[in-house]
Amino acid sequence: MDRFTTMATFVRVAELGSLSAAARALGLTQPAVSQQVAALERRLGVRLLNRSTRRLALTEAGERYHAQARRILEAVAEAEDGLAEASDVLSGSLRVHAPAGLGQAHLAPILIGFQQRHPALAVELIADDRYADLIGEGVDVAIRLGALASPGLVARRLATLRRILVASPGYVAARGSPETPEDLAHHPHVRFSWAAAGDAVPLAGPDGPLEVRVQSRFLANNAFVLIEAIRAGIGIGGAQLPLVQPLLDRGELVRVMRGYAYAPLEVHAVYPSARFVPRRVRAFVDHLAAELPRIPGLER
């Protein structure tokens, strides 16, 4: 059995903590993965994994071998990538994770254009609003909004995303438009369900940041659902400007409380911390850094 294949399989098992998860990621059966790890242990003459019915854990020898094997695999990948530096051709696979709203509305066209420029590259976009496990899910680069809380990741700031308060024209005609934070507290609010606990929303105003207690009437974990709720006249809500600018231009939404807004969010590209970053990842992040500031509501 190929030494590098068994090494790569073991590294995947160690990172995912599961034979079945590694099998899914590698496109193999669980018995095949188990056989490769067992063959590696026999060849090395040591136990690398402690197996139980519930989980796998690295032995002390397994931890040392995992660190060394990962460095070797990265060095091999770097050597192969270096041979391609003389060519403009990007190949291999690129797996991108992004928030659903921004991913569907703006990142998808950018990613499609990038693939058309590099037709030998296979790309995949995963658009949802959860925080993906980059290593566990084999994600090459993730686009994240706001503060970065995950250790062990490399991040590059790409842009700043503006968020404003909006309502439907029908809502404003029926209920009026708030002018102050105190007014906003008396209007029904539409907001993300995973936002800060309670009914306080953080705003940025002329005197700096503040929190306003609001009456949450509709919550969802998807930006497009929230925009539809605002369009339906349920209440006032904060919206990402790149997603609602076309609706503002057509008069389907109106901005309220122009002196106040949700705090802007930093947009970062993040990828697993490693000495070697594949050329296709570097090229895509450079492409994003050039394209995102062209979108209204995203600023360099």
Strand content: 25-35%
Strand order of the largest sheet: 4-3-5-15-6-16
**Secondary-structure element pattern, one letter each:** HHHEEHEHEEEEHHEEEEHEHEEEHE
- Tally of DSSP helical segments: 10
- What class, by secondary structure content? alpha/beta
Q: What's the CATH first level of the largest domain?
A: Alpha Beta
Poorly predicted parts: none
- CATH topology of the largest domain: the name is D-Maltodextrin-Binding Protein, domain 2
Q: What is the CATH architecture descriptor of the largest domain?
A: 3-Layer(aba) Sandwich
How would you describe the shape? elongated
Largest sheet: 6 strands, mixed
Overall structural domain count: 3
List keywords for this structure.
DNA-binding transcription factor activity, elongated, D-Maltodextrin-Binding Protein, domain 2, 300 residues, WH_DNA-bd_sf, Arc Repressor Mutant, subunit A, DNA binding, 5-stranded mixed sheet, 6-stranded mixed sheet, LysR_HTH_N, alpha/beta
Describe the structure.
- With 300 residues, the protein is α/β, with parallel strands linked by helices.
- It folds into three domains: 3-82, Arc Repressor Mutant, subunit A (Orthogonal Bundle), CATH 1.10.10.10; 92-157 and 267-299, D-Maltodextrin-Binding Protein, domain 2, CATH 3.40.190; 161-265, 3-Layer(aba) Sandwich (D-Maltodextrin-Binding Protein, domain 2), CATH 3.40.190.
- 40% of the residues lie in helices and 27% in strands.
- It has ten helices and 16 strands.
- The strands form four sheets. Strands 4-3-5-15-6-16 form a six-stranded mixed beta sheet, with helices on one face.
- Strand 9 (200-205) and strand 10 form a beta hairpin.
- Helix 1 (3-16) packs across helix 2 (19-26), helix 1 (3-16) crosses helix 4 and helix 5 (100-117) crosses helix 10.
- The chain is elongated and about 75 Å long.
